[in-house]
Amino acid sequence: MLAILALVTAASLLPAGPSPAGGLAVSAGDVTDRRRNDSFFAGLEIELKLTGEPAAGVRGARATVEKAVDDTGRNLVKENAEKPDFAKSSGDEAPSLKLELRNPARRAGRVRELTGQVELFVPERDPAALAKVPRFAAQMDRPIAAPALKTAGAQVTVVSRKTYEAEKKKDAERRKKEAEGAGIAGAMVNAFAGLFEGMFGDIGENDVLVRVEDKGEKVFSVDVVDAAGKAVDGMGSMKVGGFWILKFLEPVPADAGLRIYVMTPKAMITEKFALKDVALP
Amino acid sequence: MRGLCMARVPRVLTVFPSVVLAAVLGPSPLAAQGVRVSAGTIEDRRTTGKFFAGLEIELKLTGDDVADAKSARILLKKAVDETGRDLLPERKPDEDFKSVGSSELKLALKNPARGAAAVKEIAGEVQLYVPTRDPAAVVTIDRVLTRMDKAIESPALRAQKITLSLVSPKVYLAEAKKRDAEFDKEMEKHKEEMKKEAGDDKTAEALMALVKGFAGMMNDVGENDLILQIGDEQKKILDIGVVRANGEAIDTSGSMSTGSVKILKFSQKLPADAKLKLLLHTRKSIVSSPFTLANVPLP
After folding, report:
1. Pairing with A13, which of A213, B108, B166, B262 sits 20 to 30 Å away (CA)?
2. Average pLDDT for residues B239-257, to the nearest whole number?
3. Percent with pLDDT over 90 in chain A
4. Cα nearest neighbour of A45 on chain B
């Protein structure tokens, strides 16, 4: 079990606190207190920096807050906050994480206590966290058979345009029916959903369409790779309903494969953190 | 009239008698009547990071002269929080005219003290641009399309020391390479300054690539676009548009400016009798009123 605690005094001024050998250190980075009189986008954002041996090889991470109190005693934890998505690493460094909190009191000078946990996805720790799918074009519209996906209870399928359009149509009809049952409010929700789908759901001729059924949210990423296993550079990806649209300007190679990372229990590290007296700007 | 001594009056406004106009602007603008200034959205963005810290206060204007105004600007003189901290920015603030009624009319100040609960005083002058106050403030150039690739002769523009010529897309694109080379030279000159400003080479390079990308957009001109070469050292031009022979405005699909060049983009061919309409800042078209906000609560 890796070391857990990183206590940092005056976290924004001092380096990360001592971490036991081989352990993870969590320290506060930039602190931004956005205060508005109309409350739109107001809040306190604390960047967390991850260092130490476990931070190497991290492909993704997220942080959740358990307790956050300023020095006036004000509770800074947002009510009904959803669990954040995993932030992805760019390059070899661990991603910097951001905690979203409520604004502290104006007269507060510090966040007295901040505790929570970080979850790290380190696929190198478990060979089963990586599923390689050669020549995905040959498996179009058929669920990919990979032990990692099966264990995670997830299903990933590269779909053809025809299947995508049919599913989209079916989904639109389902939403329309639901909206009819929900009166005017439902109709408005449906209209907005249609608008957003129109804006973002359009697919380019070179895009790769992937249906991801993953109730446990274990599928971390799906990338297109060439025959040598190198990632094919694209224009990013977006999620529309249960579909992941991987965008490409050029056609992907005919023999391209997929690289799917799955967050298996062995590939995950969960660490508690505790910061004290984080100075407020 | 509410005085500054009033304690904690939320978003109080005080319009001073217009005779107290600042003399620093040369001949004083005319006095505006009944202009009221109040604070709208306030954002105090405080960060330990390098960028985007500051206090932003949106200003709302009301009053008879405001209804006729096309645009407005704020000349700030004093801003201090209740701890006595001076909030005036170190750099000269943006004093361009902004559309009245938009949310663009904002003060960009330094962060107040963390413990300050209110801005004690903000004082300055609001200037309104009311072109209907002065016939010389509106200049139209008839049949503008017939004046391609030559200087536009206009006594009204000459009187304001403005030069103007219309450049055809063909001529403009032919000079694109020369312009790009000049731009690269200019960027090279400011490279070190950018590095210092950005904090590291990587960020500076990314910023410069971004600037170059935007500059490159200036070469993206269509056959219907109007390309204007403008000489206006005194910055008298507030707006340029195109109207039909009957004065009805023709909507652009956007505009771009860099240095002395302004491009008005049109998705359709302009009518042969289209006119260019310029709104100019003249002494008589500007009306002014000092203002003071006291005890503006901070979020």
Report:
1. B108
2. 93
3. 63
4. B47
Please name each of the domains of chain A with its CATH number.
24-124+267-279 (2.60.40), 127-263 (no CATH)
**Architecture label for domain B12-132+285-297:** Sandwich (2.60)
Predicted complex ipTM: 0.74
Reply yes or no on whether the pLDDT at A195 is more than 60: no
- Residue A199, H or E segment: helix A183-200
Task: Delimit the domains of chain B by residue range.
Answer: 12-132+285-297, 135-281
Which of A12, A36, A108 is facing B42, going by the closest CB pair? A36
Q: Which residue has the higher pLDDT, B103 or B246?
A: B246
Mutation site, B11, B38, B46, B109, interface A, largest A CB count within 10 A: B46
A38 touches chain B (CB under 8 A): yes
Question: In angstroms, rounded to a whole number, what is the distance separating the alpha carbons of residues B179 and B167?
Answer: 14
Using CB atoms, pick whichever of A31, A36, A280 lies closest to residue B299. A36
Residue of A nearest to B39 (CA): A37
Helix (H, G, I), strand (E, B) or coil at A45: strand
- Closest CB to A106 among B41, B53, B298: B298
By the CB < 8 Å criterion, does A10 face chain B? no
pLDDT digits (tens, 9 = 90+) for B154-177: 999 999 999 999 999 888 888 887
What is the C-alpha to C-alpha distance for residues A65 and A80, in angstroms, rounded to an integer?
Answer: 12
CB atoms A35 and B298 under 8 Å? yes
Do the beta carbons of residue B229 and residue B172 sit within 8 Å? no
Structure confidence by residue, pLDDT tens digits, A113-135: 999 999 999 999 999 999 999 99
**B92 touches A: beta carbon within 8 Å:** no
- What integer pLDDT is reported at residue B297 of this predicted model? 97
Mean pLDDT of chain B: 85
- Angle separating helix axes B176-189 and B201-217, nearest 10 degrees: 160
**Interface contact B115-A107, CB threshold 8 A:** yes
Residue of B nearest to A11 (CA): B48
Would you place residue B179 in the very low, low, confident or very high pLDDT band (cuts 50, 70, 90)? Answer: confident
pTM of the predicted model, to two decimals?
A: 0.75
At residue A215 the predicted structure's pLDDT band, cuts being 50, 70 and 90, is very high
